[in-house]
Amino acid sequence: MDTNMQALAAALWPSPQQLKEVAGGLFNRVVRVDFATGTGYLKSFTETAVSGNFPPLPTSAAERCLVASAWHRLAMRASADAPQVAVPALLAVQPQCHLLAMEQAQGVPLYAVLQEEVHSAAHVLTTLVSWLGVLHGLPLEPRAPLLAASRPFKAFKVDLQYTRLLPELPQELHAAAEAFVAEYLAQEDEPVHGDINSRNVLVDEDRVAVIDFEQGHYGDGLYDVAYVLSEYTIRDLRLQADPEQCIAGIWQAYCHARKKTLDSVAYRRWRSHLAFQTLYRLVGPSRQVWTGHLSPTEQARVRSWSTAELARWLL
Question: What does the pLDDT read at residue 119?
């Protein structure tokens, strides 16, 4: 066990303690700390992948620690204003060893709920989107160092989720898709969670919690809304339900949360994000996680919907 983690655990929580490494990301180590009255977590960011043979990320461990702690604090502020979504308290940051400590978040991953064969968890999405509307409207400073620390990963992820999908699209959509990507890379108005997928959303009865902030960047909040909505869209398509009812409701909920009516240009941009994100979950490198449970017929349905949406909203 990492000595820095052991020392921080001893400083934060009472003894006796049990420290156990648990599954985290490819470029971080996560340790669960159990003690008599509760549980805490430590996260240490690494320069190289903790498993497999993956190339280095475009940002350093120090940069990802800076981003994670800044966006985590921002999320805690959002939850103070919108307490329907909880964020575990950030207890300590040790930048010199790229280490964070936080409380435990309650609940099970939304991912498990979305695999069910029933239309459930609609309230979770509405609650989450209302909270995101608050998050996206908050200021986040110091802007310059946070931009420098988050821009490279934003570009890396946009390339992965958008640019690399171009071979999946008809040639006549390529120019519009490339213009859309360039536009999003230039958008830096709002702080975005950046990885708001169903594994980073926890559900405990009617309560919702959000975790993992190291992929935060400055962009457009509509990116986050499309990111999580894509999983609901895939479930609707799997169950042969019309996704439009859910899409319309979420647009209204987000506009309400932002306390403004977003215009048709923003709506088109959002629908393009949603189409890209839905297709990405079908063909991207983590496709087995997001769509591996779908039959070939269901996968074809997702592909057909996504490509038709891109043709509709990009052009």
Answer: 60
